[in-house]
Amino acid sequence: MWKSNRLYQASGSAGMTLAMLTLFCLCSQVRIEIPKRLDFINECNCTLCSKSGARWAYLHPSEVSVVGMTKGYSREDKEDPAAEIRFCANCGSTTHFILTASAISKFGNSQIGVNMRLADEKDLAGIELRYPDGRAWPGRGAFGYVQEARIIE
Predict the structure, then answer these.
(1) pLDDT confidence tier of residue 5, bands split at 50, 70 and 90
(2) For the chain, does the N or the C end have fewer beta carbons within 10 angstroms?
(3) pTM for this predicted structure
């Protein structure tokens, strides 16, 4: 059964409007909910990101709900990979990444990445899209960028 991705508006405190973005994999067996408007999305050019076909939104794990069966993959060409890519166990869509146990021991469970290619582009209008140079990134410190950021229309 096909389900569309949805952007819900809800009333927040002091009359603020909060956006709830609900994403689905291709077969709809994995659902991801993000209860806030994103400031930016990264389209990294590293091998892992480009081959997984992902544009990442970085969030704290407490800000994301993932429901459904996923499988994981960590890079075998890295001695100590920091991320485990998760994908739908049924259709294979890349859904998100989590930090590996090694990364959590170093940095805490401080980040999850959600594949924003699961979203309808219209639901991302007004969000900044950044292009970090992950291929040249040494694994610590700030990213360089391969091109200027743009606002998704």
Answers:
(1) low
(2) N
(3) 0.84
